[in-house]
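Recap from last week: sequence in, structure out.
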Amino acid sequence: MKALRNSKRNLQAFLDGLNPQQRAAVTADEGPVLVIAGAGSGKTRVLTGRAFYLIAEMKVHPAAIAVMTFTNKAAGELQKRLEELLGNRDSVPWAGTFHGFCARLLRQYGDTIGLPRDYSIYDQADSEKVVAELLIERKYSRDEIVPSTMRNWISVLKSGGALSGRHRFHKLAAELVGDYDKRLRSAGAVDFDDLLLLPLELFRVNPEILSKLQHRYDHILIDEFQDTNRIQYNLARAIAAPQNNLYVVGDDDQSIYGWRGADIRNLIDFQRDFKQGQSFSLEQNYRSTQQILDVANDVIAAKNHHNLKQLWTEKTNGEQVVFRQHSRAADEANEVVGEMDALVNRQGMSWSDFAVLLRTNSLSRYFEEVLISQSIPYTIVGGTKFYDRREVKDLTAFLRVLSNPGDEQAWKRILKTPPKGIGEVTIARVVDRCRRTGMSFGEVIADAELLSDASTATRNRLEKLSNALSHIAEHNKQSSLSELAADVLRKSGLIEYYEEKFPEEADDRVANLYQFIEAAKDRETAHPEYSLSDFLSEIALVSDIDDYNEAANRVTLMTMHAAKGLEFPVVFAAALEDNLLPHSRSSDSIEEIEEERRLFYVAITRAQDRLYLSASETRALNGQLMFQEPSRFLRDIDPSRLKGWTLPREARSMMFEPTEENYHTERPSYRSKSKNNSGLNGASLIPYKIGDIVEHPDFGMGVVTAKSGSLDSLKVRVAFEGVGSKLLALKYATLRKVE
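Predicted structure tokens:
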């Protein structure tokens, strides 16, 4: 009773701290609700408040609420806030990612569609290995088709998408889908796509399971709704029916994951599918200064569809946004780090106050070199994740086999590391027996007599490994997660292997192995009910941001995508140049260009107090030193909003080979366009600029995105609407510039 009174009192205090729009969204009636929440408008507070309101005011049982978040980190923060508000950990509803929700669902009910309860989750690397094996079996080499590309095409097809058919291997992708899925199932494994697809299959085959979920969950709350894909939306709709208590929070201006299946149409279709639903808009920003928001509003207002939001804030006294265009990428990095140093020394700021946001991590090199030379601590978000490090994956493979003896990729890993005198020929024989008999990898290894064509020594080694793993499993039946992991580490030989094989790296690698044991201890403390398969599922679904430590006093280097959901007192958005932002790969359609615009908007709105924008006139890209043009998105910003702004000089878009001479001579003057300049190639003679609109008699209208070539072979790359990007030789192509 006392806890209830405290909750009611806390709820009133919480509601009093909301602005009118937030309060209206939190206290909305039951039924479908759409909240369009601008950047920094307190959407997490609203989502937390909604769950709090349902429990404290509407008397909804916490177990009847599921909150879907974009990352595990976001879910943990939401649950922590709710525990503080409710004063009772047991009153906190489930929160996690769609993949996490579906993984739990398949652990519970997957056996009804032939999936073992202890199934393995294959990550991107595991999936690519399966695809590589299928390609090798069909006599295709890596030079012909890269497995990661084929894996991506298979993912598109599995998720109901279509391939254009323009690539000669698109047909092969369609042929491989079935074999790929069959290979995973024979190993008792699923991939990330399966985690979302198989629950829909489960509902189709066993509608009573869907009915159970519908009765269990009265309310479904979804964060970052603009980044959901079609399958996730269909899953949520199915579970929320028939009451349709579906509460979604999103922002169309921050939809930046179309390349991995996110469908911005979900926001539009939600309003069509639930015509009786309620809609709310949050426009007051609590993160950034008005000076920063004015720049963000300019960028997003130029998008193709009408802008429904205009962010504003009460923080009107801020620093003007700074723009700098540098001669070289190295100069850009030097000035960025120099400004950080000045702010630390003069303003008393910390290194953790700074973030450098880049379109891709490959652009970080110059910044890293300067930071290292100045002994400034930094971290790269989006580098190798802890659970993706080689030594951690080696240890995890042993645990995966103990959990699921059919896990083929895990078996292959432990057969090779540490070395056991078992080569590729033996592994191929085991695979062959598996394919011919239908037995699992673990079953074949446990019965060495099935490998009669292997040597006695090889069979003995396999038998020894199988017995050792069986002994570990038997010995640890009553052990905790960390005790099991520690026993595996002791008996795996991994520590000795790394100390002997990689002596210079051994300390770090062994430390990571022990950190894994600590991670297992943390999980068993937080979740005493966790099984080994639960633990393996969780670490398989960890994202880059879940590993990010905001408390560390380090400069953060990260991609603009990775920065989503974060904020920093000072942001440096760097390398803002055409072909980087928008990226050259995104030049095939207006939709992709607009997603790049939204990505820039996300980068801008990460800044709280200060924002620096920068570009370089030259940059080494793909082995060539390129003259760069500032990002076209910069031209959408009112110049009066930018300190240091002059209309960006139009780079000549020329490129020349990165010879020793080119790198160590002065950059040619923009006014020097002599045809006799030996450093320049013939690209300067091309009568089109990047960004020019041209027309081709067969391909139609397009935009020039790059130009290159020698004096006798001038070429332009043009992104045509409908047919994609084409590289055209001007000697043969008939192009007309559209004025």
